[in-house]
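Bumping with the actual sequence this time:
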Amino acid sequence: MQKILIVDDDSTLRAALTRYLKDRGFIVRNAASGIEGLESFNQDPPDLIVSDVVMPEMNGFELCTKVRDTGPGQLVPFIFLSGRCDLEDRIQGHSIGADDYLVKPFHPRELIAKIEAQLARALRIHSEIEKALKRKAPQQLANVDRPPLPLTPAEEKVFWEVIQGFTNKKIGDRLFISPRTVQTHLSNILSKLALENRSQLIRYAFENGYQPPHSSNQISNGRGTTQKSAGSTAPNTTESAANQASENVNTKAEDQTPSKTTRQRRSTASAQSKRKRRS
């Protein structure tokens, strides 16, 4: 059975939705605020989230952003259910990563239709990813000769961020552009690649072996550190070798130089020999 998390500060609406969804075979959990919803999600990620926008402590937009910033939450369907019907609110909801936006008042049958459609799409995405994993190993994908992306430099930067699962807001923060600009680039990317949404874009990238490029700065820094380390140890090694050679020379010289005791013994033996000759 599929699990649905309902996040809304209206207890009457939560109770009605819970009863309605349970009657249709879903497992339902409730949360009265964004903070409670995030805690419930972290404890046991659901298959889909239905959330209000205006709530105390943490609103629905913040909840969606935090869910999308987690690994398990990147592909979990998220539906806003709100009385805020302004165009800007709906655009903001989609821009931060929501999959759908339903305005109150609504008919329960429409909500059920949207829930079932999002769950079916999520199932198709997971199924396609599993098939792609069986067809191609990641090592093989890295060596595939791929044609260059038909994107502008700015669009290509957004492309690499999107396929890593970042939300528009997160991408904007990383690239120092607004979420609206990110959405514009994403729309152009989807149009050029003949795709419909970011989920299809992630699948497209995976199936065709596109992987985010490694940072050249990190590589060069690593090499620079290695070279610097090698350069710093070379003088010490040379100095140690010179010191060792000097010690060897000194030791050899000392070995070749008679000690004081030896010289005294030789002098005594010479004096005794002279006395015997005289006598």
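The tokens above came from a reply further down the thread. Residues 215-260 have pLDDT under 50 and may be disordered.
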